[in-house]
Amino acid sequence: MNTFLILLLLSQLTLAVMNGLHLWAEIHYAQVRPMAADAIYPWEDKYLFVQSVFDLRAGQWAWAVKDLKRLIEASPYHLDAMNNLGVAYWMLHDRKEAEKWFRKALRLAPEYRWAKENLEILLGARQGEMNIMLLAK
Amino acid sequence: MMLIILTLLSAFIYSPFLPEWVEIFTTPKDFALSIMSTVCALTLYSKSQKEGYGTFPLLLPVCIYAGLCLLSVKNAVSSGLVLRQVGFDLMGFVFFWTTINFIKPHRMESVVRVVVLIAVVSAALALAGKNISQPYGGLFGNPEYAAGITTLAVGASVWMWSFLTFTLLAHLFFAQARSAMIGLVVGLMVVLWARGLIKHLVVVVGAVATVGILAVSGVGSDYLQRHHLGQWGTGSISTDRRHIYSMAGAYALKYPVFGIGRGNFQLHSYQFVYTGGGAVLPQKNYFTRLHNDYLQLWLEAGPVALGVFLFILWRLLWPIPAGLLGSGLFIGLLAEAFRGLFLFPFQLGPDVAYFWIMAGLYWVVKKGQ
User: Fold this and answer.
1) In angstroms, rounded to a whole number, what is the distance separating the alpha carbons of residues A65 and A92?
2) Which residues in chain B have Cβ-Cβ distances shorter than 8 Å to A111?
3) pLDDT at position B116, please?
């Protein structure tokens, strides 16, 4: 019974620390509005996503590719990450990789608007700037 | 008793000093509640050292449940999320056991009065546009509100009670707290049936029929159109729910034993939202939770974990104790549990705290008889 109570205490302490980190991270990243409204943990996919958006906005395309690839490995259906990875490769002038990631996103979700538009821009069928996905508020 | 009151008050934390885009309805409350649950766990531990082990009902099923949830890490994309969610699930039980061990039967009515007072103040503020509790229907679906109303109402004259029942149902209907409304009705009907109060049962059925007629007639037609009759991707949340429920059911069959990992649904939710035509869904982030706690538990931790959790709920709720307080608490608890079929109360800190504290009071009432 003693062991059980100690484990129970540890579980709640762990939860409190995680929630504290969560709250700190939201406040810390709140400057990058409107992204911080979602949960952010250092070990969670959205942290990597936010980092990658920082990188994209700062023009650090190679770092964005690195973060997004790690993210997609952890979260294989993350369409926004695939879209942004395509954009990062486009900015690195790697058309082949960019097209690959846009098409991968569209294979999972043919109606996914942003990858569709970005692919059209890549293929020259549409004018404009590529869409980068941010976490919605 | 102060520990319980502080826990309930911490669920009301509203932080206007935080940047507006921080999730103020969830994050600060979850943090405050987890601090309180740590204090409660520490108090339980230190009490056990001084006075011997207290009462821990449903200990074995809770341990089995937690163990099964931890085993779900096998298929999890993020083990961190598994750990967090298991801690969160246990938080409710910590409040449950703290309430049982520190609230004595003779203090029960005082505690319920304080809770109902908090509920009434919060509901009044919500109606005045200052919702300080949480955004999902405010406190309308929470157990203490139902407990307050039904404790006052059951046993009063049939007309007074009918009026209060109808008012409550209409209020919830127009507040669009649909699952809470239905849950209260179900709870009321179960109690009335269990008590043999057939006249009251007839009144409830009449009230439900009236609201139903309002809903399908011109009064409620916009509401129905918006919430039930829309197509996938047009923002009709009810229709969209049917789609993700059926996808979740099929998805769960791919992970028949351990599930996808407790707390990991949000990492899979993109697939649910973006496939099947859901890419145009205007509220795609709305479905990072499955909107059915039981289905999500099955998907995340497997059918055995769901079965154990339902067993815990059944052992908690049944049988209904005699008396007004027991009836009122039962109705509120059942309403909240029912709400789990269409929303995610067991994943919201304030709802979890309220539910399991009320469950603790309910247990004390039951065992006191």
Assistant:
1) 10
2) 274, 277-280
3) 61
Packed helices B324-339 and B178-195: angle between N→C axes, nearest 10 degrees: 140
d(CA B236, CA B281) in angstroms, rounded, equals: 9
Using pLDDT thresholds of 50, 70 and 90, give the confidence band for residue B76: confident
DSSP readout, B172-219? HHHTT-HHHHHHHHHHHHHHHHHHT-HHHHHHHHHHHHHHHHHHHSTT
For residues B91 and B41, give the distance between their C-alpha atoms in angstroms, rounded to a whole number. 9
Say whether A13 and B38 touch across the interface (CB within 8 A).
yes
Partners of B95 on chain A (C-beta within 8 Å) are none
State whether residue B27 sits within 8 Å of chain A by CB: yes
Residue in chain B nearest A45 by alpha carbon? B267
Q: What is the reported pTM?
A: 0.74
Q: How far is B286 from chain A (nearest CA, A)?
A: 10
pLDDT at B365: 84
Rounded CA-CA distance B319/B316 in Å is 8
Residue B256 buriedness (CB in 10 A; 0-12 / 13-18 / 19+): exposed
User: B-chain residues within 8 Å CB-CB of A80?
Assistant: 270
DSSP code string of B27-57: HHHHHHHHHHHHHHHHHHHHHHHHH-----T
pLDDT tens by residue, B173-226 = 555 566 766 777 788 788 888 878 788 788 778 877 776 676 666 554 454 444
A101 class by beta-carbon count within 10 Å (0-12 exposed, 13-18 middle, 19+ buried): buried
Q: How confident is the model at residue A35 (pLDDT cuts 50, 70, 90)?
A: very low
Per-residue confidence (pLDDT) for residue B149, from 0 to 100? 54
Q: Which element (helix H / strand E) includes A115?
A: helix A113-122
User: Residue B217: what pLDDT?
Assistant: 63
